[in-house]
Amino acid sequence: MTAECITKTKHDYTEADLGVLDTNGKPVRHPNYTELEEGKFYLYAMAVKSFLLKPIAKRVSAMIQRNAKNAVADQHKILHKNIQKAAATQFGKDHQLGKVKSYVDFKSAVPVRDYEELKKYFDQVRDGAKDVLWPGVPKYLAKTSGTTSGVKYIPLTKDSIPNHFGTARNALFNYYAQSGKGDWVDGKMIFLSGSPQLSKTSGILTGRLSGIVNHMVPSWLRGNQLPSYETNCIDDWETKLDRIVEETKEQDMRLISGIPPWVQMYYERLLEKTGAASISELFPNFNMFVYGGVNFEPYREVLEKLVGKSIPTLETYPASEGFIAYQDDTNEKGLLLNTNSGIFFEFIPAAEFGKVDASRMSIKEVELGVNYVIVLNSNAGLWGYNIGDTVEFVSLDPYKIIVTGRIKHFISAFGEHVIGKEVEKAMVDACAKHQVEVVEFTVAPQVNPIEGLPYHEWLIEFAKAPQDLESFSQTLDNEMINQNIYYRDLIKGQILRPLKISSLRKNAFRDYMKSQGKLGGQNKVPRLSNDRSIADPLMK
């Protein structure tokens, strides 16, 4: 126990402070309180919530370890359970799910498709039709940006909701059990997310996934959560950010969660408004950063400089379509695949994707080091659903993955098929060698330059620019040659010239995202694209 304490009079205590009431409804003093003169009490820093949650966290962690050992068997059960439950739906009848007896049968019955290809089913669900993809109607529709189809409406059913909030809770509890660090639950926490305001679509509650999940926060934790509901409902990100800063700057912030570039904006605005030297000076008890959606490494140096020290991190892999994986061990690489939470996973080698005879496999058949397209079949009514992400297994016992990019986000203008994982690794390594800090970057091909050979253009906003940009460019190009053999061959064969860096002004990426209506929330800048649709607007 620490000597730091909170002083209150007898009349200041609440049920939340003391945890329990006696038979007359009066607060019962917790054993960690000591009565002093004048009726004052001191609460030593073994706080009530973390103390009470510790045994629960241990049970959750033990359950996670059991699930990890039974992954193949659990996946088999989930597939057959989902098939049986959906056999009488419209989708089930159209694909004769009632006749499916094995995974081989399932692959023959259900093709792999994306949202656009399954749109006729999703549109019926959105219009309120029953028993389309899953029995009944969904409890929520998660509204998210589409590609060619515009807005997407992803169903969240009564059966699939535990996958979302339950997995997030389990990841946090497991971290507590594994690390012994749980005092983040005794202070304030913030989840930088979309608006929790929900509308109705054909009678179904509809909103951003992060906003929907906001409604699932249990009452015992809601008092710890910031910002306020009213602030969280603000649509304009810059206005919302200013309000968040005002509400949090004097609070005991202990856990901060969000996508790194928007958390960076929050940190910068906090320091600007308060004049503090660092985030850790402002929030001395801040001890946990939870993130997802992007690779943290390109942002690590800038964020740690703003914080003033290294903060323990927990990586998660949530999506509107399902909570796919999370970091179960902060000392090991990779995210534990969520194999017992209503989702049956399939994997297609990215090199084969789109081919008629492409391999399609369960986790039992996957291999280490192969770039796979991930496919979901879930109790939300997703069937053979390609979410567009690519992953790579870094462990098969237990099954752990890293996210390598998006199947639609790549550069292959000359057959090089450069992916997100490769450009991020090259950037991190080059920055380390040159003591460079990057705010944000994206990569695009320049197929028709005004003169000379084509090249890959790296558009970078530096937080700390290299002293010698040409030397940094050469290092970055060498790192890419090490990452991708096809790129190496194109450079050596003089089909491509070495990459070119275009250094962008401060806030270029933020202004671009604002112009696209995607500032803040869960939006993120694509790391690379196979055309100039991002690069040219950025250059302006």
Write up this protein:
With 540 residues, the chain is α/β, with parallel strands linked by helices. It folds into 4 domains: 1-46, no CATH class; 67-150 and 337-406, no CATH class; 182-311, no CATH class; 420-539, GMP Synthetase, Chain A, domain 3, CATH 3.30.300. 35% of the residues lie in helices and 22% in strands. The chain has 19 helices and 21 strands. It has helices at 15-18, 48-69, 71-86, 90-94, 103-109, 119-126, 161-179, 209-214, 219-222, 229-232, 237-248, 260-274, 279-282, 297-307, 420-434, 469-483, 485-492, 508-515, 535-539; strands at residues 6-9, 33-35, 40-43, 140-145, 151-156, 188-191, 199-201, 204-207, 225-226, 253-257, 288-292, 313-319, 322-326, 335-337, 343-349, 371-378, 385-396, 399-406, 437-446, 455-464, 500-503. The model is unreliable at 1-46 (pLDDT under 50).
Question: What radius of gyration results from the CA coordinates?
Answer: 25 Å
Largest sheet: 11 strands, mixed
Helix content: 25-40%
The strand count comes to 21
Mean pLDDT value: 87
What strand line-up does the widest sheet have?
9-6-10-11-12-13-14-18-17-16-15
Beta content: 15-25%
| Structural domains: how many | 4
Shape: globular
Distance between the termini: 57 Å
- Briefly note the structural class of the backbone: alpha/beta
Low-confidence stretches: 1-46
SS field, number of helical segments: 19
Q: How are the SSEs ordered, and which strands pair?
A:
Layout: E1 6-9, H1 15-18, E2 33-35, E3 40-43, H2 48-69, H3 71-86, H4 90-94, H5 103-109, H6 119-126, E4 140-145, E5 151-156, H7 161-179, E6 188-191, E7 199-201, E8 204-207, H8 209-214, H9 219-222, E9 225-226, H10 229-232, H11 237-248, E10 253-257, H12 260-274, H13 279-282, E11 288-292, H14 297-307, E12 313-319, E13 322-326, E14 335-337, E15 343-349, E16 371-378, E17 385-396, E18 399-406, H15 420-434, E19 437-446, E20 455-464, H16 469-483, H17 485-492, E21 500-503, H18 508-515, H19 535-539
Parallel strand pairs: 4-8, 6-9, 6-10, 10-11, 11-12, 20-21
Antiparallel strand pairs: 1-3, 2-3, 4-5, 7-8, 12-13, 13-14, 14-18, 15-16, 16-17, 17-18, 19-20
Helix pairs in contact: 2-7, 11-12, 12-14, 15-16, 16-17
